[in-house]
Request: fold
Amino acid sequence: MIETGADGRSWLLSGPTSSYALRLDDEDHLLHLHWGPRITLADLAELAGLPLPQWSFESRLDGHEEYPVEGGARFAEPALIVRSPGVRGTRWSYVRVEVTGGELRLGFADPLTCLDLTLHYRVREGHDVVERWVTVANTSPDTPLEVPRADSATWTLPVRASWRLSHLHGRWGAESRLVRVPLSYGAHTIGSRRGHTGHTHLPWVALDADGTATEEHGEVYGCALAWSGSWRLATRRLPDGAVQVTGGWGHDDTGLLLLGPGESRTTPVLAGLRSDGGFGGASAAWHAWQLAHVVPSAAEDRPVLYNSWEATWFEVDEERQLALARRAAALGVELFVVDDGWFGRRTSDRAGLGDWTPNPDRFPRGLAPLARAVRALGMRFGIWVEPEIVNPDSDLYRAHPEWVQHVPGREPTLFRNQLVLNLARPEVAAFVEEQVRRLLESAPIDYVKWDFNRSFTDPGWPGEAFPERLWTEHVEALYGILDRLRAAHPGVAFESCSGGGGRIDLGILSRTDQVWTSDNTDPADRLAIQHGFGQVHPARVMAAWVTDSPNEQMNGRVSSLRFRFVSAMAGVLGIGGDLTRWSEAELAEAAGWIGRYKEVRPVVQRGRLHRLLPPDGDGPSAVQYSLGDEVVVLAWLRAQSFGAEPAPVRLRGLDPGGVYVCQDTGRAHRAPVLLHHGLRTGLRGDLDAAVFRFRRAG
Reply:
């Protein structure tokens, strides 16, 4: 809901539990008034009447503006930087307002630079997430306008004595690790300079006042960016204690955009959320909003998949894939995915990328016979591609070496035996789209795993006067390709992968059905990765595999099928082991776990997540999912010391007057007992795990 104040210069955006308020002062400064519990227009009027503090040597605007710009008496880091010939900085005037449905648009103009700026705000019915973004335009008839920085939003938090910052950090194979630190004075900046979201950070932060919030209680603020290229989120505590979060596309403040006469660009969404339900309440609100308004076809449960990568590596041919498919189908797998190695001269990672036609020696009849055979087994058929990348040893590169990102006069940097195609070039984007389109038309393909294993290293564009534009336009071209492919093939699902979790953000999630969380499939390591991932994104998009033991790719750890399956059941279940080497007993056990997952899948993928015990150290950890009257608990124990029985796990979110029946034992449990005394899991030893299903009976 969006309401306008009686003065016509203040606005109130409200969700179920929170409100966001802003106003224009007499000098057309757009000031932030409120982000917190729901308030009324009468409360807004009182806030609008409060004067700004005055300081002798500080700006009265710093820490109070909705969208700080460079220019005038401002010393805080700006969200917007523009350059026109002979002019540095911005001084705008308010020119328009539009309120349409759930969107507020405020327009400003700077006649000296010919800048036109629109600030967008959107709230969705039933959700507390506020979506913000910016459109910047050059109204000059003949002069370009350089925009070194155009952040999507600046978020201002209420004044508190102190704040604690939460964010996700990591690296390849260890993504999405949660860290919480006191916020000191100055700036804490996370982001990526790699051209994609990156493994190092997910574009999300959360803050709680005085570090007192828990999973269930306390006020938590969060921000998340919908962008899959280089990005930046800066959380700043100003000299007077005010706290702001600003961010958007681009990591550096040089050469982001160059707007020709009459041109405009729109930034990605930077969403903000305030919750009074602790970190768990904030996660639940993020998840519900994404499932309702971000993730495509989120009401459909994702199928159990099998992926052939760790079974065959580059030894891919029709016979081997069909042998794996038969075993996968017998287990109850619903989607069979052929990974890398099926195309061109792809017998290793040194050749073939860019040539997206089946290898004639390995698939002499193309992919269609295998795809039809997989479908005849009762499964859907999927394929792996990496269309943005090319090997120098490929027909594509030999034909078009100029299509890769590279700096004139320098040898392109070979990284992972790969180079990056410049999708910002229209002919390159058109070629990539056509290649994937032809692939989808060549066989009955139901699923595409879209990988991106290579960061930008040579962001050059020979012959282009402003090569910096490839940083944003490559990603926008990718979005366009995916949007058009999805529209042309609505029955095909897409997964985003980038060497594991290197491209996970709200932007790519609005165009894909799930994401590959990490290349690390070790079930114990995955608990911490999944714990961090779930802070902002729902289980419905989190792909997790059961692979072979020992886990030779990562750490050599030996673990039981039970532990591997229960770990992977916390998201979208997949199998990635070499089924031709599994014993009959292992295959039978795996079929049982897959059947069990299908029983709990609707609750896991669409239910409300409760993090009961975090995966800290060697002790027990547990999560709970609730959907209607159904409750599922997954519990793990990494290691047990002699005589140390794991403590009962206290459930959450139950009806206090309800009775919950365990669907496996038939035993009835009163809700107060489960909530206060907890569930005895029976876990023991090392790397043990269990699944519990409950249904409310009364």
Q: What stands out?
A: The longest strand covers residues 115-123. The chain has a mean pLDDT of 96. The two ends are 36 Å apart (CA to CA).
